[in-house]
Amino acid sequence: MNEIKQEKYISCKWLESGVCFDNGVYGSNVKLCCYMSAPGGGNSMIFEDYHGEKIDWDEFFRIKNEYRKIQKSGQTVPGCRGCVFLEEHYWPQIDYIDNIVFDHFTKCNCNCTYCYTEEDKKRYNQLKTYNIYPIIKDMFDKRIIKRGGALGFGGGEPTILPEFDKLISLFLKNGFYDIRVPSSGIKYSKIIAKGISTGQLSVVISIDSSSRETYKKIKQTDAFNTVCKNLKKYSKAQKRDFCVISKYIIIPEINDNIEEIDNWLKFNKENNIKIIIIDIENSWLNKYRNDKPDERILDLIRYVQKKSQEMNFYRLEICDRAKYLLNP
């Protein structure tokens, strides 16, 4: 077997081997990533005005390789300048995809106050979702997809996508093992439970609270007890202790208190949920990008760091927004 050529330069896994099917803020398109982590980030466009048409993969990789040439030259793709995910590395010089984000839908069974769709609910509720399964099946048939990367979802609630079960089954069947599904947890999914039971899939549920009252304020729906019940069911189904992940987004003036956080940590511990995530509301963070944020919010993040160690959680993940606050 011929050895795969590698070259060292500054790039990222998304520029090299990623794809994002988007239907959000910037319209329906195919690009290389969804991360708006820096000014201009997430704008490595491949096809604009895309609505599920058959993809010319030769053209896809031609455009992707133009971006690769820019990175190899020592410059940076304009849409990626300043992005925190750029790093110097030895990158394989072959055409494949192993990092995929499905962000082509906005329909949800929750109504979180911090969701980006709050900016224009009417517009987002009218966005149409195209069928993604035929596109992914074509990628498998053409052997474009390679195992070893990551599979994720954005936009709305994945479990209510008509194609969700069929799509996840396709990836499980083909041996994918790093599938991460963010979910409201309101709808229990048998295919998620199956992926958890084999250790191929992890589910992230952003409960953001430890009480029904706080949950209703943030989610604007009365489903706290249902979500807790489903979290417990998923936890019991997991083959390994890191397939169910509980997330807490700090919403200033709603859930930014020690009591709520302590009870959330206690719930996770009691239900064998060993990976937790802490984050901060994006719209609040944007207000303080150029100013010093409330030190009390930083103390809450540090508090979760300290408590997670004391309570022996397997891992605490601090999202990029929270990291930005701690290390601006």
Per-chain topology:
Layout: E1 6-11, H1 13-17, E2 18-24, E3 27-31, E4 45-48, H2 57-72, E5 87-92, E6 97-103, H3 121-125, H4 133-141, E7 145-153, H5 164-173, E8 179-183, H6 190-198, E9 201-206, H7 212-219, H8 224-237, E10 244-250, H9 258-270, E11 275-280, H10 282-287, H11 295-310, E12 315-318, H12 320-326
Parallel strand pairs: 2-6, 6-7, 8-9, 9-10, 10-11, 11-12
Antiparallel strand pairs: 1-5, 2-3, 3-4
Describe the structure.
There is one protein chain. With 328 residues, the protein is of the alpha/beta class. It is 36% helix and 22% strand. The chain has helices at 13-17, 57-72, 121-125, 133-141, 164-173, 190-198, 212-219, 224-237, 258-270, 282-287, 295-310, 320-326; strands spanning 6-11, 18-24, 27-31, 45-48, 87-92, 97-103, 145-153, 179-183, 201-206, 244-250, 275-280, 315-318. The strands form 3 sheets. It has a 5-stranded mixed beta sheet with strand order 4-3-2-6-7. Helix 5 packs parallel to helix 6.
